[in-house]
Structures are given as C-alpha cells and as structure tokens.
Fold this protein.
Amino acid sequence: MRGNEFLDKMELIDSAYIEAADAKLKKEQNVWVKWSVMAACLCLIVTTVIAVPNLLSKDKPKPNLKPGNTSEQLKEPNEPQDTCVFNYNEASKVVDAARKNIPGYFTEDLSTQELSAIIPDRQTAEMTFLGYAGFDGEGTLIDVVLQVDAPFLNEANVSVHFSNDELTQCYVIPGEPVISKLNGYDFEVYKWSSNAETFYYDAFGRINGCFIQISYRGSDEEQSKIDFEAVADCFTAYIDGKPNLSEVKADAIPEFFDLKLTLSEAKADADFGAYMLSTVPSGYVKESIRRYKNQNNDYLSALWTKGISNLSWKISHYNENDSARLTSVAQTENYDLSLYPIPRADSVPKELREIVDNPIFDANELTLEAVYKRAYKAGDTDEWRMEFSVKYNDVIVEVRTNGVEPEWVYQQLMKLLKK
C-alpha cells in the first residue's frame, strides 16, 4: 500500500461537519463498516498482510517454513546481540484515541536511501521493505510507517511505526506496565484479544532517540506469539545510530490551505463557486463555509442548521475513486432505500453497501422520483433525511440533509444544471 492510499483510507475528518453538534458526521468509508477500536487506537499505523521469520537464537522456537526454505535463509546479525526477554502486559481492553489533527499532513514513499536508514540490521535474504513518511504542512517529519514482506512464512498483519514523538498507547492494564528487555533496549510489550480469533501484540520502546511501535496481528495464538517475538527481535537489532529519521526528508510540499469563507466569497471561488447554493430554506443559518485543499482533498463545503435540522453541501472534483459509486437512475437497487429496511447493515448486500450509502447520479439523468427514493423519515422529528451525490461533468455535488424537503433539493440541483 502506498502512503497516499493509506491516507485516503484513514481520511481526515471535515471539521465543518463537526462544528454543528447535532449534524450528521462525515462518512468517507461505508457507513456500515465500523473501524475497530484497535484501528482508531493505533492512529496512523498501516496493517499489511505479511510473513515474518523467527530471527531468535537457536534456543528459541522457529516458525514453520514452507518446503524448500531452510535456516540458511536467516542472516546473522552484524555483531553479537543481547537476548530478548519478553514480559507481557495482558491488556483487559483498549480505548479509543482520536487522531491528532496535523494541518497539511501529507505523505511520500520512502526512497531506497531512506529505507536503509531505518530498516534493522538483522533480516532474511527474502525480507523486503516498503514504507512511507508523513509530514506536516511545513515539511517537518511526523512519522514513518514501515511495511514488511517475507512470502515464505505464515500470514500475519504487521506494521512498524517510527516517530520522533512518543507514540499513543491505548491498552488498559491493571497497575504499572512491566518492562521487557529486547536486545538491550527497554520496551513495553502488550498482548490482547477480544474474541479468541485475532491476537494483538504490540511492543513500544525507544532506540537511538526514536520511538518505535511494533504491531503484530495473527489468528493463531501460539504461532502469533512465536512470530511476534521474531519480529520484535528483528526490529530491535540496530547498530551504528540506526534508525536514523534525520535521513528522511520531504521532496516537495503539496499545496495546503484551510479557509473560512462567506457565502459571497464561496460563490466567487474559481473552481467550485458556480455549484454553491444561492439560497437556503427558510430559518436555516450558516454554521460554516470552508475551502480546503491538501495532498488528497480539494473541496468547497458549507453547513447550515435550523435547530436539530441541517443541510450540508460539498463540492469537489470527480475522480476515479468515485466511479464505483456512479449509478444510472434505472439501477434502483443501487440507491432506492425503500428496498433496504433499517438496519441497513443487515438488509443491504455487502457488494452494494458503498454505492447504496452514497450513490452518484449524472445530473442529466436525475429525476425527482430518484431523489424521493433517496429520502426517508426516521426518529422522533419525522423529518426527511437523505444523502447522495450528483455529477456535473468533472465536478461532484454531495448533499446531506436532515429536515429539508426532497423537492427543494431537486430544484436546487436542477438550477446547477442550467449553469
């Protein structure tokens, strides 16, 4: 996975939608797919399906190698290493952690030279490394996420996260954590499982002034523990001042801005102003109008509220990632909410969830009937709710409302078509 793809998946939250406490939250991902608490807890960490060798001493068990692989594949460390002593902190639960807002955050793939500055000094001949670095809007390094692949070993999910700042830990344990000694370095090692199907292992420590989090996810408890200890042994085997994050630098800083606008300023925007609303329903007041651009996002958004009712209008460029949500009016299974009773997590087929969540209609095809098929009433207020997008050439207008009549929304969208 490339750094840009990771950031796309992790999605920065649009603060314009948060400013109204009762407004519906932005959902970049499928609304029925819930991030696990571990994904939120581990913040910017990427998980990659990998296989990692047991690199421990001969006195410790080795993972099962596939036929044709032998211990000759293991490289000896460049110099003698201390043994690893693992003292596990058994976590009772994990807690949510909000991602720190980093203005202008962007990523770049690591070059070969940058990789060599952070990869460990103990690895196998078949172990390969990919990764990316994250920077703030000024080009200051925030973190590095390393991904590893070793195809001849058992499957697992692993990520190694490097940072100059202390990494967030979200495990809950009774009392103070016990310390492990990994190749001479102090680490806190945690173990947790919520369902006896996935086993989580994490090691937090600091080497040469660099904070490191080694995360391992496996489905077999015994094998996961063996492989995790091998991974931890590998990624604590550093010499000669490594890992060295000072070698990781930004090649270029993408354009970034985050502006609060008036309605007249929004309508004058060269890229999206022609698609901004000229009027709003009676009684609605502006909460915010925002013009935002960074490496992965470029949009103009507005939010109006009336009590607990709200109207969100977001304009952005159409891109290939949106094509999966594009539907014709004739394909009612892609958008007609009357076909899918609440809770829709149970009624919508898995393969249709993304498009049913937020379909994109071509403006030339949109009908009032289709808008009504996107609208539904729920809750105590008995007000119309809807969410969908409309494509005008290379621009998308995304509408989210709670309390606005479907016919009013349709009329505003048709006015844009005339422009």
The chain has ten helices and 22 strands.
